[in-house]
């Protein structure tokens, strides 16, 4: 039996797709092994959001060859679509598969003869217009379910439309069927993933409309039996309607947790980034969420060091975020990406200045997160416990995405438990105990 090792770089969507690739290879008779073990084939599913993601790809290729210098190396994903020649030239790479070819991976592995030069199979991105279903079961508690792919937004800093193509979706019937399959695996939580999931409803091959919306989708998923929790991975602020907020607020299964990209708190920068909203709309969405769902967890994506970002623009962003009732930040340091409009913009921010600004926002994020956690102490919450390899501690997340820990107890893995949130530990996690009946009533 041939062995294959798979490694994912990047987002939850990539994890879902890698898992699907793994299942297709198992059906072809491969045995999946850990990436750090010797294998006959190594598959690296890449990201290319930043130049760091590119470097990580090269690092994983070298690591695979150290484990088995004669292994067959296949590279796919966003980096493979954007720069296939660059990857094919890396010593040891045998095959590079673009966005339209990745799900035919088993067919390309019929011949595992090492190549003197990497073979490229990558169609023009316009031809990548078919939706491929995928979901990942990374552990026994949570699954990442792909509901949408591609993007039509063309933000000036982003290569995703070039790497994944136009926006397209699965059908509600297919997604609810996948959710039911996941439920039969005993999984308690599903995270809905995609590139721009709020744009759900666009069909394949030229953007035919299916007359289905993201709101329609989550209404149907809210009725799926066997899944206790759904989370929305990320949704654009201009696509986060009040109806979606209302549904989550009154939902049986959708968790009080939103992740909403902002990118900048400066309207000047948002315009340069070609974003489809202004900061006033963003603030209104945050206010609407808390009005409907008090205590809701809200995460934010933000980019620092974008061309044209002056000290004043950065401080606008800093103060805007500081005043927002949010729980945490995902901070990205701007990096130049080929074939993006941002490369033509004046006002390049020195790299050291980008790093300093990034550090300031990361510190702000820690303050926001700690304050959010502190406000929850003394309350009860439901925790979904996860497995942990070191078997000393086990961790889980509350409805509002607070990370909680207790000493490891194997029988609790993949169970939901009502807990009293007691204190904040030095590592930033919450310690907890089972509450008394009186504490539950409070």
Overview features:
442 residues, alpha/beta, Rossmann fold, pyruvate-formate lyase- activating enzyme, OB fold (Dihydrolipoamide Acetyltransferase, E2P), 3 domains, five-stranded mixed beta barrel, 14 helices, 33% helix
Summarize the structure in words.
The protein has 442 residues and is an alpha/beta fold. It folds into 3 domains: 3-123, Rossmann fold; 135-373, pyruvate-formate lyase- activating enzyme, CATH 3.80.30.20; 380-441, OB fold (Dihydrolipoamide Acetyltransferase, E2P), CATH 2.40.50. It is 33% helix and 22% strand. It has helices at residues 12-27, 51-67, 78-82, 84-88, 105-108, 160-164, 172-184, 214-221, 242-249, 267-272, 279-292, 311-323, 351-376, 437-441; strands at residues 3-8, 31-32, 41-46, 72-77, 93-97, 119-121, 135-137, 142-146, 148-149, 168-169, 189-193, 229-232, 257-263, 297-304, 328-333, 380-385, 393-397, 403-407, 416-424, 430-433. The strands form 5 sheets. A 6-stranded parallel beta sheet has the order 2-1-3-4-5-6, with helices on both faces. A 5-stranded mixed barrel has the order 16-17-18-20-19. α5 (105-108) links the parallel β5 (93-97) and β6. α7 runs parallel beside α8. The protein is globular, with a radius of gyration of 22 Å.
